[in-house]
Every structure is written in C-alpha cells, then in structure tokens.
Request: fold
Amino acid sequence: MYKLLRSILFLFPTEWVHYFSMNTLKVLCSIGFIRQFITWLFTANDPRLARKHFGLAFKNPIGLGAGFDKNARYLRELEALGFGFVEIGTVTPLPQAGNDKPRLFRLPKDKALINRMGFNNDGVKVIAERLREWAIINGQSEDSHTRLIIGGNIGKNKVTPNEDAWKDYEICFKELHPYVNYFVVNVSSPNTPGLRELQEKESLRKILMHLQMINNGKAQSKPILLKIAPDLTTEQIDDVIDLALEIKLDGLVATNTTIDRSNLTTPENEVTAIGAGGLSGAPVKLKSTEVIRYITNKSGGKIPLIASGGIFNVADAKEKKDAGGLLMQVWTGFIYEGPAIVKKICKGL
Reply:
C-alpha cells in the first residue's frame, strides 16, 4: 500500500511532499478517534522495548533523527507513529531561511537522499515557545511507557564566525534547556560553510566544556551528546574519543550525512547535476556502522552511542546494535519505508 502511495508522492518535489504529508497527518491527528486509530496502527506497545540510557526512560529504542521536524511542529503526529524519541532541529539562535531551493533530492535507485537545507529553522525563541506549549497541552507523562523523549539538536547561524560559534551554542542551550530531555551539538552538517572545522579537538573542547559548565549550574542537568560526520579520518575520530572520555561527555550520535559520492547506482551525471549536499540513506549505512564499531572498540564501550545512518529495517537496526548503538535513529528510511517503519523494527527487536 505504501509503495503505491510513495510512487505517487515521488512524482512531486521532495521538500513540498515532506510538508504536504506532515500537514495532512497533522489534520488527521487533530481528530481524536483518528489519532487513536493511527496510534493503535503504528505503535508497538511492549514494555520489553523500554530502554534506559543517559538517565532517561525511552519507551522504545527507535527515534527520528534531527532535520525532519526542524521546528517542533509535528511532535503529536510523530508520537502517534510510535517513535520512542524525536530530535528536533537543528535549531539556531536567529531564524534563517536556509539555502536556496531546490535543496532536497531523492536518489531512488540508491534508496538515498541528498540535502543541502542549510539549517533552515524558525529560531530558538519561537521553537522554545512551541515546546513549552507542547509540554503544557500534552502534559508530558512521567510514565516511561508513554513518554515521548525530545532531543534538541543545536547549531550556529551561518553568519556567525567560527571563533564565536560557542556563543550560538550557549544561546540555544539556555533557551531550550527547560523543554528538551537531551541535547545534541551539531558541528557535522556539510551544509553550513566552515561548520565541520569545529570538529577539530580544541574547537570542540571550547564549545562542549562551556555547555557543560552551564549545565552543571542548572538545578537539573541534561545529557549533552555530540553528532559527528562519517567522513572523519581515524585520527580525528581518535581525537573525538579522547575528548569525550576526558570531559566525560554523555555520548555521541554517529553519524551525520556524508559528502562521499562513491559506489552509487544513480548515474554520475545525475548526481553531479544535483550538486553539493549531505548524502543519507542506504549508501551511508556501512560507513556509519564502521564508525560506530570503531568508537565502541577503541573506547572499550565507555562512550554511549546513538546510531544513525542507513537504517531501513530490523536487520539494519540489529547491525547498528551489534556495532555498539544503544538507540537508533531513522530518517531517510522513514521516507522510503513509510510510517510503519518504527513498529516493524520494534517487533523485530
């Protein structure tokens, strides 16, 4: 059924379809009995799926990666689809439109996407207010079997020079702190010029230690994780591992999209015509798993990991789990496999 719907949706521009689909789901979920039916249809209610990591109780280990619900507009709808956690963002201090359209492209032959969105979002103040309203309206339950965990993925504005990037991360951290359950520091998107330079050890140390200092001054601290690219060299990954252990970072999200275009089935001229951007989906699966396994082995399993990259089914999820992933995030797999992806993976697990 979904394959037929997908073939129709894929006739239209990618970014337009994204918002059309989610806004349609939003309308459906505004009707109580329909939302209940969707929840029943797509949610795997089994206490054996519950996980406790980072001091948080997850109702299941399958989450939605950042970049899908950038502005925290669809939390109720994503909760109805059975996600155990949703990572909003990437959020920046000031609103920004992102890169010029078109900026999101499908590669169906590779079960992949290329995006160069450029951190388009409504800005941290608007998003924080939206999260505050969500918490009030939905009365976030303390029951670990029903609670949706929300992560806040934070970044810097395009116009902010790298030497001042720590200030942007501080602003987002302070504004979102009351409303998210954990934070992910994003320095690995390939779509903001110069951002990946912040993955160097000393730049990371400055940002992360500053956030930890603020966090320690709060009545309730929140877990802080770092999202890394799959394109790091072994030496750069070693630096990340050393720093994470040194400053007792809560964990890593591995990995973001790749700039690598090798071994694609899509004709080279089509890929070249699309241009720059981060590649996600099936082509990044192996590279992501290798990074996760390397970090697990090198650190002796001392760094908790959220696995992301090329998860489409239960076999992919088990591969990430065996490599060391404690929790899994889907994104491109959600587009290609449809709204039943969470329940299918959960049942398989």
Summary: The domain at 2-348 is CATH 3.20.20.70 (TIM Barrel). The first helix runs from residue 2 to 9. The first strand starts at residue 51 and ends at 53.
